[in-house]
Design a protein that fits this description.
The relative contact order is 0.17. The protein has a two-stranded antiparallel ribbon with strand order 1-4. Strands 2-3 form a two-stranded antiparallel ribbon. Helix content is 45%, strand content 3%. By secondary structure, it is mainly α. Helix 2 crosses helix 3, helix 2 runs antiparallel to helix 4 and helix 2 crosses helix 5.
Length: 326
Amino acid sequence: MAASFKLGILVTCALLLAGACRGAPYTELQVGYYQDSCPKAEAIVRAAVSDAVAEDAGIGAGLIRLLFHDCFVQGCDASVLLDPTKKNPTPEKLGAPNVHSLRGFEAIDEAKFALEDACPGVVSCADVVAFAARDASYLLSGYRVDFDMPAGRLDGRRSNASDTVPSLPPPSANFAQLVDNFAAQGLDAEDMVVLSGAHSVGHARCSTFAAARLGDGSDIDPSFARRLRRRCSDTGVEDPTVSQDTVTPAELDSQYYRNVMKGRVLLASDAALMETKEAARMVRESAGVGGRWEKKFGAAMVKMAGIGVKQAGRNSEIRINCRVVN
C-alpha cells in the first residue's frame, strides 16, 4: 500500500511540473494502479487490442477516437459505451457525432470479459478505454508513441445523446472554435493541435466534409479535391469513406501535419490549424521527424484521459459489463 501511494504522489508531481493539471483529478490516478489488485490488467487489455488491430487497423484508430469522444462528454467515465435501454433509449453512442462513426466497442468487450475472468469487479471500463487508446497508439505508430497511462477511473451511470453535440467539436469548426472547445475541457491550443494528429489514421465519411471542402472557394489542394470528388461521387457506395491520411493511412505519425501544410486534409477543422501564425508554427513543429510530436501526443493523451474523472459515490461504479450499468 505504501509503495502504491508513493507511486501515485510521484505521478501527480510529474504532471504538476509538466503543467498538466488544470483542476482535473490527476491526484486520483496512478501509473500501475492495478499492480496489486489485478497485476495482469494492462497486459490483458493490450492483448485484446493487439488482436483487434492485427485484424483491422481501423479498429485501432477507432479506439483512439473512442477515448476522445468519451472524455469530452461528462469526463472519462466510459459513458460512451452504454447501449440503449428502455429507460435510456438514446445514450451517447447514438448522438450525431457518434452514431455512424465510433468503432472499437467489441475490442473493449473482449478486454473486459478477459478482465472479469481474471479479476472480477476490479478494473473499470473507463480504464479499459484509456488503456486501449494508449495501446492502439503504440501499435499504430510502430511503437514510437510509447507512454504510461495512469488509472483509477470509475464508470459513470449517465449517458445521453443530447450531451454530445455541445461537447464535441464539429468537423466544420474553425480555429477559434476548436480552441474554445478544448479550453472548456482544460486543454490548451497546443494540446488541440497535437491531439489533432490522431487524424493520421482512420476514415471520414464524405457527408462530413464534402459540402464544406469540395465547393468553390475552398483552400484544399486542387488535385486532392479532384480525387475526393471522384470518390465521393461513387454511386455504388452509400456515403463513401476516405482515409484521413492518404499517404500513410494505417500509421499514426506526423505525416498528418505535412498534409495540413499542403492543403490535403479532409475536414475544415484540420485545415483550420493553419488559420493563425501561432497555430501554423505548431503544425510545422509537429511535422518534423525525430519523435518530438510522438512524445507530445503521449503527454496530451494522458492529460485528456484525466478529464472529469468520477468521484466514488452512487453516480459511479465499476461496471461488470461495459454496455450496461450494474
